[in-house]
């Protein structure tokens, strides 16, 4: 038996020859040789793991074609798996070779082989070194091998959960029981088994576990894999575990927010109920009750809005998210609530408080006064000489834009209620053109006031024609040249929806406006938001609901 123990780094041929030579170490000579080489073999296995953990499983197998044969043989050598941490290192190496998303039958077969080896390693104990004894014991218990390993996994999970939870009392870490390296090793062990339903209690316990270490003790690979499985609905986790995952691993939170945006942008939005359902299922609005999560998600949404040039679809998603966030915030235990400043630390707090009031919290007759209060505060901020940059102006605009429900109500109140229009028109003018200088905004206000005055006079008319409306509104023919065509289109759309005479010509006139001004998507988003609010609050009669549905059906086909 060769006694040379000087081994080149990552010399797979050398160690594979040794593994074949040793077999299962059944002779005294082979046992002696195994024992002689165990320290260097363990060092070699650690080197393999350090190399593999930075590789994709497919690349690893391509680069090291002998690795499967080597690890497979070593896993069945009782002297190897019984030495120090070699068993754990072998498990780590196998985890690195496991394909999280197998693409072909070969990878599926490899995954099955890896799982069987992991089960073997996990079930290894002093009395299991004899295969005949093991089979006899399993059959005595009345189990098949498959049943046995299923119960083994459950028992193993229960044992690890008990161990980890026993290390904490009332959320405080009891030092000295479970080391950070042990917790990290457990998280790595979970990697190839994450989607097993029986493993869920262990995943939850790990995600909620907080040791005394200053650095993250769970492996980043584990956190990424759990997040990926959760986003793709391969596992179900309690809300508390998901929130803890996102709080302790920023890349997972960022991926969750971007995944939500991608998911919503890939579907045809026909109703806000559908959008709200997808957003709520993501758990992001609920998680945003924690200020740190809210601010990060808010930043991601803001960047998405900037990258898409402020498209109405992205803005609508953000506005629905905010509504769901406010609902989650109201459901929070009052003892655990954070102050508003924790969510909006750099904004004018009275304005934040006013925007956060939900419309249903106020009597309808108080809406216009509340909107005037918002408009007055906003105007004072915008005209403040301290607002010196476009970035400052954008931050103020983005704060207001997120609470789009109030903006839509402002446009409706102008026509449906007796209000002082200037403050509400200014609020809408700022929303649609925040970058306008005083002179431009003055011109926008003049145009908006002229259209508003004409619409207000026609609001009570029961009979209207398209030509009659165009004749009464000379500026309609030149909407595309207005300082703010979006504001004018918003007012006209609301007029057609909520006035008696408007119902009769709504379909023809809205199609005419959107075609002339290229605002189909914006009008479609407005109609969807209006339908959502009416369905939830029961504000209007069935005639308006029917009209909205007809308009949405036709516009959706044309967009």
UniProtKB/TrEMBL annotation:
What InterPro entries does the entry give?
Answer: FANCC (IPR000686)
GO cellular component terms, alphabetically, are: Fanconi anaemia nuclear complex
Gene Ontology biological-process annotations = cellular response to oxidative stress; interstrand cross-link repair; nucleotide-excision repair
Q: What's the superkingdom here?
A: Eukaryota
Q: What is this protein called?
A: FANCC protein
Primary gene name = Fancc
